[in-house]
Design a protein that fits this description.
Enzyme class: isomerase
Protein name: ATP-dependent DNA helicase
Structural class: mainly alpha
Radius of gyration: 38 Å
Order of helices and strands: EHHHEEEHHEEHHHHHHHEHEH
Domain DNA helicase Pif1-like DEAD-box helicase: 228-264
Shape: rod-shaped
Number of strands: 8
Distance between the termini: 96 Å
InterPro entries: DNA_helicase_pif1-like_DEAD (IPR010285)
Number of helices: 14
Strand content: 5-15%
Helix content: 40-55%
Keywords: ATP-binding, DNA damage, DNA recombination, DNA repair, Helicase, Hydrolase, Nucleotide-binding
Largest sheet: 2 strands, parallel
Number of domains: 3
């Protein structure tokens, strides 16, 4: 037996072109489809709640005249759910759940896993472990961020999207966007010839984060402590400076400029 299914209030309705739409909507076949009647039967029959939708025809028979399921007395039947493409989104995930969930009494119950109701059939599939959560792709991008540039990471993410291998691309983006956006702000500032804001540049902030009055006070205190006997050990070469305790070259200590020429050795 082929078992149709549909999203909430999206069951198929067949009518003639000259039929009055209000009369069509009042027909029992619209209010009670095979799929919705299955959930209604689960509300009143304890044995029915032990079966999945696919297993239902083995124990119950669909009565089209009465628009309800009744316990099977003779014969046997095997249920088969209509195939749908993954491109249809929620309908596809609903089909996956119908092969696993037993005895739901409503659409909301189909989305409920361990007492928690999920907003979509897809989320319920992930909660049941029926779909990969794409964590391996998140880990791959984070690992590549240690050595790869932002441009490379974005190229890697685009390659993943083009391969159609991501089950939840938004999940991967939400967990890696900081790595994927690395360098974009700087590139835009260079393109627009806009300098980096000093208010957000860490190096500039550190250089400006000095207490000038305290520095002036320390300078005056140390300057007043200077005497003629205090000396700085300097030498003209690096090798000679090693002979003095804490010695340095004169050019290094006093910032003496080096005027190099073609004859300098």
């Amino acid at each position: 037996m082929r078992l149709p299914f549909h999203l909430l209030d999206q069951q198929q309705v067949i009518y003639a072109a000259d039929d009055d739409i209000d009369n069509v909507l009042e027909q029992p076949s619209v209010a009670a489809s095979i799929f919705t009647s299955w959930m209604e039967c689960n509300k009143i029959n304890k044995d029915a709640r032990r079966l999945t939708y696919v297993e239902y025809p083995t124990k119950f028979v669909w009565k089209p005249d009465d628009r309800l399921w009744k316990p099977r007395k003779i014969g046997r039947s095997i249920g088969r759910i209509h195939y749908v493409s993954p491109k249809l989104g929620e309908v596809y995930f609903l089909r996956i759940l119908l092969n696993k969930v037993k005895g739901p009494k409503s659409f909301e119950k189909i989305c409920t896993v361990s007492g928690e109701e999920f907003p979509t059939f897809r989320d319920a599939c992930y909660a049941l472990g029926l779909l990969d959560d794409d964590k391996e792709y998140v880990d791959a991008i984070k690992e590549a961020s240690h050595s790869g540039t932002g441009f490379y990471l974005r190229f890697l993410f685009a390659t993943m999207l083009m391969s159609n291998s991501l089950g939840r691309p938004e999940f991967v983006w939400e967990n890696t966007w900081q790595h994927l956006s690395d360098g974009i702000l700087y590139n835009q500032q260079c393109r627009l010839k806009s300098p980096v804001s000093s208010s957000t540049n860490r190096l500039i902030m550190e250089e400006l984060d000095y207490d000038i009055p305290i520095l002036k006070k320390d300078f005056d205190r140390m300057f007043d402590a200077l005497t003629n006997e205090q000396l700085l050990d300097v030498a003209s070469s690096g090798i000679a400076s090693l002979l003095f305790p804490e010695g340095r070259t004169a050019h290094s200590r006093f910032i003496i400029p080096l005027n190099l020429t073609d004859d300098s050795v």
